Amino acid sequence: VSIVLVRESASGERRVAMSPETAKKFTALGARLLLQRGAGLPAHFTDAAYAGAEFTDDADAALAEADVLVCVQPPDNARLARMKPGAVVVGLLAPHADPARVDTLVSSRLTGFSLERLPRTTRAQAMDVLSSQAGMAGYKAVLIAAQLAPRYFPMLTTAAGTIRPSKVLIVGAGVAGLQAIATARRLGAQVEGFDVRPETREQIESLGGKFLDLGVSAAGEGGYARELTADERAEQQRRLAEHLKSVDVIVTTAAVPGRPAPKIITAAMVAGMKPGSVIVDLAAETGGNCELTRPGETIESGGVTLAGPLNLPSQGSLHASEMYARNVYNFLALSLKDGQLTLDWNDELIAKTCLAHAGERRA
Ligand code: NAD
């Protein structure tokens, strides 16, 4: 098989789906690699680092030859349509973001695997792009918060007196939230976290954070949270509003699969915070956990700075790409042997991620 990597076309996307390390592993499985020149550069992988790969300047020519296209975000639909029938596309295909994408996969008889649909099972962990990328997002979100804050994070004892550590609250303790807690702790802040899944208490505490108990528990299916009822939401908000008056920094990461981000921080809560407080809303991409968030912008409201950064994993493109590329490799390795690609439709990891195959819609 020919595995192809072309430059990412989505604006601001600096991650790449194949690293020099995974290129070597693909070659060892008998694959031929064809790369657009410079495809790895946004993640600081030079062409020379991809030992054994072939290169072209012409992305369309590479796509036309691909048996497998690996990507972070997919090329636009017109480009996808130029791939040959039967070719496989693996990446974050985000079918809900662009319904025409699945139509294109179907009409062009492409096989599309959307890695964000992988079940969160033990076997899928090595391919779990949501986890590998969320970790980077949580880390960067805390660094942005520290950068925007007019306060130190750590406690400092100086000749000019003692500085109290910042109080940082992490909202949502999934993969991103737990990495945010660990990062804020390493910077010396006093860290609290909360989540609606009760098992997060122990996870937050094991990272040196304090569990903020808002009296709401809403575990859903598959290890995820469910949406809160109106009563639960009111209770969470009443307790939170009081608590936020003493918090210096909030990083929000709460999400419910397939739903817009839950609105947890209201405008009134922001108004009640101390001047100089900072909120970084990691959920900006899906609408934000704060009512005032403007995706992609940093604004000020009553002395509180509010950032809604987009695509944070891309800011850590080198490590995010190394991990993403390993996830992609581990997924394709299920089907690659002796240079041949054989898809096992009885494997739930293959079946559940598939959006389209052989001219049929699978999702
Ligand atoms: P996510 O991105 O869907 O959500 C982030 C967090 O927000 C979750 O912890 C969720 O409980 C929380 N949340 C939702 N609504 C909230 C609210 N109203 N208030 C406060 N918090 C709220 O989650 P994720 O990071 O993708 O992880 C979800 C779960 O999957 C976690 O338990 C994680 O450990 C688990 N997981 C398992 C595997 C595996 O076993 N293979 C891999 C990755 C993640």
TrEMBL record:
InterPro entries xrefs: Ala_DH/PNT_CS2, AlaDH/PNT_N, AlaDH/PNT_NAD(H)-bd, NAD(P)-bd_dom_sf
Family statement drawn from the similarity comment of this UniProt entry: Belongs to the AlaDH/PNT family.
Entry superkingdom: Bacteria
Name of this chain's protein: NAD(P) transhydrogenase subunit alpha part 1
Function: The transhydrogenation between NADH and NADP is coupled to respiration and ATP hydrolysis and functions as a proton pump across the membrane.
Catalyses which reaction(s): NAD(+) + NADPH + H(+)(in) = NADH + NADP(+) + H(+)(out)
GO CC, any one term: plasma membrane
A Pfam family of this chain: AlaDh_PNT_C
Alphabetized GO MF terms: NADP binding; oxidoreductase activity; proton-translocating NAD(P)+ transhydrogenase activity
Gene3D superfamilies: NAD(P)-binding Rossmann-like Domain
SUPFAM superfamilies: Formate/glycerate dehydrogenase catalytic domain-like (SSF52283), NAD(P)-binding Rossmann-fold domains (SSF51735)
An example Gene Ontology biological process: NADPH regeneration
Naturally occurring in which organism (per UniProt): Arenimonas metalli CF5-1
Record keywords: NAD, NADP, Nucleotide-binding, Translocase
Domain Alanine dehydrogenase/pyridine nucleotide transhydrogenase N-terminal: 4-137
EC number of the protein: 7.1.1.1
Domain (Alanine dehydrogenase/pyridine nucleotide transhydrogenase NAD(H)-binding): residue spans on this chain: 146-308
